[in-house]
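Deliverable D5.2: sample structural annotation.
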Amino acid sequence: MMKWHLDLYGELSTICIGLQVGPDSGANDRWDDYLRRYVEWRRVATSSTFVENIYSNPDVVSDIYIWETSHGTDPRLLRLNADNVRIERSALPAELRPLLAHLEGKASNLRVALRAWQADAPPRDADPSAEPESSLAHKLRSTAITGWQFDESIPAIVHPIVHHGQKSLGAGGPVDWFVIVLNRSTIEQRIFPELAQRYFGGRQGLEYKLAVLSVGKTSRLLYSSDPGFGSADVSNSDSVMNIFGPPPESMEGSFWQSVKNKESLRGEEWHSFSGPVWFPVIQRTSEGAAWMLFLQHRTAPLQASITRVWRGNLIVGGAVLLLLATSMFLLVIATQRVRAVAALQMDFVASISHELRTPLAAMLSAGQNIADGYAPDLRRYGSIVTNQSRQLMDLVDQILLFAAMKDGKKEYVIEPLEVEGILKTLQKTTLPLLEQQGFTVQVEVPKEIPAALGDNKGVLRCMRNLLENAAKYSGDQRWIGVRVEVNEFAKVGKEVAISIADHGIGVDPDEIEHIFDPFYRGARVVAAQIHGSGLGLAVVRQIMNAIGGRLSVKSQQGKGSVFTLHLRVTGKAQSTTRQRAAEAMAST
């Protein structure tokens, strides 16, 4: 708004600069001198040559008159005719008569003329040297420092001129007047729109609604950027500027005072202010029309926009704080999980060390007995070494398998597999070892088993881990059951379920959701000093997920557990391996 204000003053004051009325108020200039300057000033606009420091906009000036009030009772109105380059006498235009009559009444001396629109201007017979005490703000509001004064109703710019040759320049003699009548249509139709676009325009047009009103007894709309804006109530405007008149009384009469005392101003007072005046401007009467600039943001009043932005910032700030709080919460949880995993890993290291030490100790003892000649039954000692080596290899294989699965390096071949073949392999390898340890293994298999999809080695590893777990946690009830069933469900179809059951210690209900986590071992298991690595069930679950199956568990504390492998069925009962492979390829 201040830049808009400065450019408007630049447009209106260029003729004042062009006429070059000096600090002597024209005492040494003749009327012809002003005519010549006016003609030169107008010629700048049409000349092809650049004239430094001179800006001309002749279309803003309608006419320039000299009101010779120093002639006493017979004042004359002279018009500067720039087209014919002459000064000619003119009749009094009707629209200028109130202004000329007012100027005639203020022409007794220069001091009075410089306060032509001041309500308390001294009368003609007052002492011209007497000046009442007044504040700086009052002086700025009432003293035309450069002599140029503005009448907003016409509009016109006036200046008192000391008659050429008159010796007394102060208050001693009468003065004449320059009256520059401005072209209202040029101001309203060219200058206001150009300044609006220059300072309030954006990529998509004006960002603000603008209106310039002549506010007085009867208000008049001088310019509006939008139809209807300014003709109705403009009290909700974001900001209001009195373009030429004084600031509100609460702001102590000047823009600078308002800046100085901004801490004590009420918030609403910033919505209405006046621009600092470069040639102080006085309203003609207290009832004169004041030119006011009204601004309102196009989307909504600025206060509403500020409130909306404030609320948006509050929401964003709250979201950020919530995000930070959530991040801190997740960080605490992650730290606790890291600590828990570290503790599990330490337990794993301790368990693995024990699991490795037991077979190694047995192998070392058998080897020493053989070396020292205390092993008459070499077959028995060879069996000990073989069994302990197999146990050691199984442990190492399980650790390597878990590491490969965690890194995503383990790949499985999903194909039709023979469940009966897997059971036969277990009967040759794992089940005899269990029977040697005193376990009773009961196997229940239906006559026909449909072809199931999976990885043969992976399913075999799962069953071995479950059998070893059943043996480890069976307690005094040394019984293990292996059962194969074919189930059919409406959503998933048929599946082969291979269950491994025991009558052992069971699983605590609070620990069921954790027993498949790597390295996890229940508190009762640790207290009972049952050795293990905590990887068996974790490996089983990962293998089943990788081959498209699933693992389920049912357990009752003190009565045993049942772990079941669920495998998808290819479609028909298995006959031969080749036939089942062909059927699987055909279904694929």
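Annotation notes: The CA atoms of residues 20 and 579 lie 114 Å apart. The radius of gyration is 53 Å.
The annotation will be released with the project's public dataset once the embargo ends.
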